[in-house]
Write a structure and sequence with these properties.
The complex is a heterodimer of chains A (about 325) and B (about 70).
Chain A (H helix, E strand, L loop, with lengths): L3 E9 L2 E9 L4 H22 L7 H6 L6 E2 L2 H16 L9 H7 L25 E4 L4 E4 L11 H16 L5 E6 L2 E6 L7 E6 L7 E7 L1 E8 L4 E2 L5 E2 L2 E2 L4 E2 L6 E6 L2 H11 L4 H9 L5 E5 L6 E3 L4 E4 L2 E3 L2
Antiparallel strand pairs in A: 1-2, 2-6, 3-5, 4-5, 6-7, 7-10, 8-9, 9-18, 10-15, 11-12, 13-14, 15-16, 16-17
Chain B lengths: L1 H23 L13 E6 L5 E6 L9 E3 L7
Antiparallel strand pairs in B: 1-2
The chains are: A alpha+beta (about 325), B alpha+beta (about 70).
């Protein structure tokens, strides 16, 4: 018997999730342990990072009124990555956009949203200070600031869950964690080749715009094709930190490939508010990234040589 | 005469061996030729000619799909 993909699917972080491992015929027990470890880690990350759970560490930090707060080590690490991503993206990704998101109407878990117009946002500015004490396991936000990790949290949790699988099964040949389309992956597939990751085509639901071949790292997609809300679904959750409002320019979706899943998601969030020219410059300045930018109209645009195996669109010759 | 029979038998034996080998070692099926990328010249809106490469549309099994995260209701 040859290796096959052992898989578990579950609901977490407000979306559909899956974890999978490459397992041989005698690896069932190890595979079960690894998959259980992945699910447990995702649940632990959600308990620390969700802004929709009033008991989460993030909710306690947001409500702390600028005081130092003891929080789970996962939140400290995710905040550290978020602050670094804010610097790496030149502020295009900003975890402190929560007041702007709430003003836009995204004030509760998406499945509980109802139609109401956006409120006026006053007194908010991007780039609020986040202080971390990793040794003490505590964090502090600038007074009046609040954090949303929606643009990096799933990637972070996927990477943590993949690490948890490798700890639970040290001889793990390969594995993948998929949190609503944000992916962390590593090692061999059952076919002993790279992971084949389809990029969904937002303009033709049920079809793919291409297939990525990946050995490790992360891939994440951000866009305004799904999470729309407000009157006539006119609003979306991609806040431009420069204005504090849902971004006007940007693609329908953008998929980013990066060495790490959290990095991929943060840069996907940043590219999702940029016009094509800006996105091209953003990726060109960061050689560790590649992306597939799918505009509202016209052909998808590969940026920075994404490892595409198959495409059914026109690629402009160099 | 004996020598002639020996030659005939050895020829038949050799043919039999070749036949058995051919039967037990069928030629490997050659892989389907991969669709090659095509280069096209298209005319843009401003009349300027542009070179584009049309990639093949091979379909294979995938392990996962990346997309904007859907909402589970």
């Amino acid at each position: 018997m040859s290796a096959r993909l052992e898989r578990t699917t579950f609901r977490a972080v407000g979306t559909s999730c899956a974890a999978a491992v490459t397992a041989g015929p005698h690896d069932a027990r190890f595979a079960r342990a690894a998959l259980a470890a992945a699910r447990a880690e995702v649940a632990a990350c959600e308990g620390a990072l969700s802004r929709f759970d009033p008991a989460s560490d993030l909710s306690r930090l947001n409500a702390a009124g600028g005081e130092w707060t003891a929080v789970d080590a996962r939140l400290v690490e995710a905040l550290r990555l978020a602050v670094r991503a804010r610097e790496d993206t030149g502020g295009r990704f900003d975890p402190t956009v929560l007041p702007a998101l709430v003003a836009a109407g995204y004030d509760r878990s998406f499945e509980q949203l109802f139609e109401r117009p956006a409120a006026r946002l006053t007194g908010w500015r991007a780039g609020a200070e986040i202080e971390l004490d990793e040794a003490a396991g505590s964090a502090r936000l600038e007074a009046g600031a609040a954090v949303d990790l929606g643009g990096i949290g799933k990637g972070y949790a996927a990477a943590r869950a993949l690490d948890a699988m490798r700890e639970a099964w040290p001889m793990l040949p390969g594995g993948l964690v998929d949190l609503g389309g944000d992916l962390a992956l590593w090692g061999d597939t059952p076919e002993r080749g790279p992971w084949r990751i389809a990029v969904a085509d937002p303009r033709r639901p049920g079809t793919n715009a291409g297939v990525l071949l990946l050995r490790s790292g992360g891939a994440a997609t951000s866009g305004r094709d799904v999470r729309r809300f407000g009157p006539d679904r006119s609003l979306h959750h991609l806040i431009d930190p420069a204005t504090g409002e849902p971004a006007a320019p940007g693609p329908l979706t953008v998929t980013v490939v990066a060495p790490d899943a959290a990095e991929a998601e943060a840069h996907a969030t940043a590219l999702a508010i940029l016009p094509a020219a800006g996105a091209t410059a953003h990726v060109a300045a960061r050689p560790q990234l590649s992306a597939l930018y799918i505009p509202h109209e016209g052909e998808p645009i590969p940026l920075g040589r994404p490892p595409l195996a198959e495409t059914r669109f026109l690629v402009r010759a160099a | 005469m004996q020598r002639i029979w020996a030659v005939v038998l050895s020829v038949w034996a050799m043919l039999a061996i070749v036949a058995v080998l051919a039967w037990t070692h069928p030629p490997a099926a050659s892989p389907a030729p991969a669709a090659a990328a095509q280069t096209l010249v298209v005319k843009g809106a401003n009349g300027k000619q542009q070179l584009v490469v049309v990639q093949p549309t091979a379909v294979g099994a995938t392990h996962a799909t990346t997309s904007t995260s859907g909402v589970v209701r």
